[in-house]
Design goal:
The structure holds 2 protein chains of 2 kinds.
Chain A (H helix, E strand, L loop, with lengths): L7 E7 L8 E5 L2 E7 L5 E5 L15 E3 L2 E3 L6 E2 L5 E3 L17 E4 L2 E6 L22 E9 L3 H9 L4 H4 L7 H5 L3 E5 L4 E11 L3 H7 L5 E10 L3 E10 L14 E13 L2 E10 L6 H31 L13 H13 L14
Antiparallel strand pairs in A: 1-10, 2-3, 3-4, 5-6, 6-7, 7-8, 9-10, 11-17, 12-13, 13-14, 14-15, 15-16, 16-17
Helix pairs in contact in A: 1-6
Chain B lengths: L14 E6 L6 E4 L5 E4 L2 H9 L30
Antiparallel strand pairs in B: 1-2, 2-3
The chains are: A alpha+beta, B alpha+beta.
InterPro entries (chain A): Cholesterol_7-desaturase, Rieske_2Fe-2S, Rieske_2Fe-2S_sf, VanA_C_cat
Protein name (chain A): Aromatic ring-hydroxylating dioxygenase subunit alpha
GO molecular function (chain A): dioxygenase activity
């Protein structure tokens, strides 16, 4: 049984990745072909010619005047996916059409709907407007993860691992030792995990980027909307500083760490990561530092989760995990994901992919 | 003993909350129906929360909850 929820929106690409050229990516085990039309709209279709399945992203297939021409026999499709020409005959079969995917470009992200297109509802796309808003600067990347997506969800829902896996970058002793509050709203499909450290060591990641010296107030508020979008609202401020009653927060630095967790296959994941900030907006040095260091942190996770995937994929069935307090948010996310794929959510077991 | 509690963020009518009780190893589960219980094990905790309304006794009258802080940043923006 698949562990990938269907009838869900997933981030397929950054908007900047897709131009007026053919672009292919496997999303949730489905090969999808993207391109940006001359008018600027991103379109998405099955990356298989209806004739003999030749991948339309594969050379010598090509895009000419917003029409994709299959490199095998020349079947030609418009941007709506309809076949407009076949070789050797004037009549084009009525059923010759590439399966279309609902696609929405918002907040610098290209979202694709995996499932029944009739059920696609744009209003359910979770937002991260700061990724494409004045007053914010964002650095980003994409790493291939040779592990099932649920392992990245586990990883990101429990940030106590920062202390051990990411020591010297974003981890300090307080992360693992500060209690958390977890909120779950099943109706809205959201898990929220708060860890507010009011007097903490400042890790190099934030010391170098903000210039804050000494101890800090460090708030981590995770907002996960399964299955794909994960947002870490990170607030870094001098000890004792809190937001004003009117909501302003002039003494604090705000960093929004966003992940789009998109399954490629049952055992591999597109690990999109973004770091948006509301300070030093035009400082290229800060951008380069945050990009390099966050990528380092992401790759530390990737290395660990790749190993974990191999461990889980080769172990006998029935391994019994142990969960403790730090796992409260991760367990909430697991049961929400389990429900999305039709499993009984009770006891929130680890996803048993084989 | 009064238990420090982080202000709520999610606004739904059926939000379940779990507070790691400061200074202890215990978790306090709060169901949307108002029932509360302390746990040592998050697995048992979720079993109980998911079992609503089984064994969810009415809670003691809650202490007044302070108003949540406003945030200048993007609020919890869950889909409708």
């Amino acid at each position: 049984m698949s562990t990938i929820p269907r009838n869900q929106w997933y981030v397929a690409a950054y908007g900047s990745e897709i131009s007026n050229e053919l672009f292919a990516r496997r999303i949730c085990d489905e090969p999808i072909l993207f391109w940006r039309t001359a008018e600027g709209t991103v379109v998405a279709h099955a990356d298989r010619c209806v004739h003999r399945r030749f991948p339309l992203s594969q050379a010598p297939s090509r895009l000419v005047d917003d029409k994709v021409i299959c490199g095998y026999h020349g079947f030609t499709y418009g941007s709506d996916g309809r076949c407009v020409a076949v070789p050797g005959q004037t009549k084009v079969p009525r059923t010759a059409r590439l399966a279309p995917y609902p696609v929405v470009e918002v907040d610098s992200l290209v979202w694709v709907w995996i499932g029944d297109p009739a059920l696609a509802d744009e209003s359910r796309i979770p937002r991260a407007s700061y990724l494409d808003a004045p007053g914010w600067t964002t650095v980003r990347g994409l790493e291939p993860l040779a592990a099932r997506f649920s392992l990245l969800v586990d990883n990101l829902l429990d940030l106590s691992h920062e202390t051990y896996l990411h020591g010297g970058y974003i981890g300090t002793p307080e992360v693992a030792s500060t209690p958390i509050t977890t909120e779950v709203d099943d109706d809205a499909g959201a898990v929220y995990v708060s860890r507010h450290m009011d007097d903490a060591e400042c890790p190099p990641f934030y010391r170098e980027s903000t210039g804050l010296q000494g101890r800090i107030a460090r708030w981590q508020d995770i907002e996960y909307t399964p299955p794909c979008l994960y947002k870490l609202h990170s607030r870094i401020a001098p000890v004792g500083s809190v937001p004003n009653p009117d909501g302003s927060d002039p003494d604090a630095f705000h960093v929004e760490v966003v992940y789009a967790i998109t399954p490629e296959t049952e055992h591999s994941t597109h690990d999109f990561w973004m770091v948006a900030r509301d300070f030093a907006l035009d400082d290229d040095g800060v951008s380069a530092f945050l990009a390099e260091n966050n990528r380092t942190v992401v790759l530390q996770d990737v290395e660990a989760l790749d190993v974990l995937e191999r461990v889980i994929a080769t172990e006998p069935a029935g391994y019994q995990e142990l969960s403790i307090n730090i796992d409260t948010g991760g367990l909430a996310a697991r049961r929400m994901l389990a429900r999305m794929v039709g499993e009984t959510p009770r006891n929130a077991p680890a996803a048993p992919v084989r | 003993m009064s238990i420090p509690e982080a202000p709520p963020v999610l606004r739904g009518e059926r939000v379940q909350r779990v507070h790691w009780v400061l200074g202890t190893d215990q978790l306090r589960a709060v169901c949307h129906c108002g029932a509360e219980r302390l746990f040592d094990d998050p697995i048992e905790l979720w079993e109980w929360l998911l079992g609503h309304p089984d064994d969810h006794r009415p809670a003691e009258p809650p202490e007044p909850t302070p108003p949540p802080p406003r945030t200048p940043r993007e609020p919890a923006s869950v889909p409708a």
